[in-house]
Amino acid sequence: MREVYRALDKRLERTVAVKVLPVEVSANAERKQRFAREARTISALNHPNICALYDVGSQDGIEYLVLEYVEGETLGKRLEKGLLPTEVLLRHGIEIADALEKAHRNGVIHRDLKPANIMLTKSGAKLLDFGLAKWNAAGASEEETLKTLTRGGTKLTNEEPHSIRVPFRCERGCRDRPRRNPCPSRAHRPWR
Ligand SMILES: Nc1ncnc2c1ncn2[C@@H]1O[C@H](COP(=O)(O)OP(=O)(O)OP(=O)(O)O)[C@@H](O)[C@H]1O
Ligand SMILES: [Mg+2]
To answer: Residue 157 — φ and ψ, nearest 5°?
Structure first.
């Protein structure tokens, strides 16, 4: 678990997010390496739906990343208040799929995709936290790709997966939830 602070970059007069590796964790070479890898990974991915990296460094034994400050709430927090309207769900789903496609094209597998790592902002969804991401050289064979994937059943996070239920709607936007398929009005057909 890293610590993330909202901070002010006085030189550029902009709000930033500073993600630090606490001193007690900095002593762990593997965690330090993972942090450095996270920085390299984000800096290689330039995409409107991926949180940007501004700077990276270390001071008094504390490793830090300076990130674009993403104003909004995580998808996890948002889901505590209820389901997303279908239209919003689809919009954010497409944005995240787009961000993942960019990552995959660059040989990066995120491996920690969950509501706490997705920020919803006024301008769209942003993918965060490449701390567990793995690199896989672009153009690698399927066998090489599979070697970099996590073994089935390996737990990467303590968080339970959320099941997002998408309410049924027929293609005419009929709001009543028909019990039968197609919609009882007969004229309506279900969305595919
Ligand atoms: N760039 C950012 N702007 C605003 N808030 C952020 C930003 N990055 C992270 N946060 C907030 O901090 C929380 C934790 O960040 P993040 O997921 O990157 O770290 P983490 O989960 O502690 O790291 P890890 O799981 O890799 O140990 C996020 O859920 C989000 O609420
Ligand atoms: Mg996280």
So the answer is: -145, 155
Binding site membership of 41 for ligand 1 (Cβ less than 6 Å): no
| Catalytic residue set | 112
Say how many domains are in the chain: 2
Q: What is the pTM of this model?
A: 0.76
The answer on 53 and 87 residing in a single domain is: no
Kind plus residue range of the DSSP H or E element containing 68: strand 62-68
Residue 192 in domain: no
Residues 63 and 13 in one domain: yes
pLDDT (tens digit, 9 = 90+) per residue, 149-186?
A: 555 666 655 666 555 555 555 555 565 554 445 555 55
Cβ-proximal residues to 126 (8 Å cutoff; 6+ apart), any chain: 49, 50, 51, 70, 72, 99, 118, 119
Range of the domain at 16: 3-68
Given the CA of residue 38, which atom of ligand 1 is nearest to it?
A: 26
pLDDT in tens, 21-80: 988 888 888 888 889 989 999 999 999 999 999 999 999 888 999 999 999 999 999 999
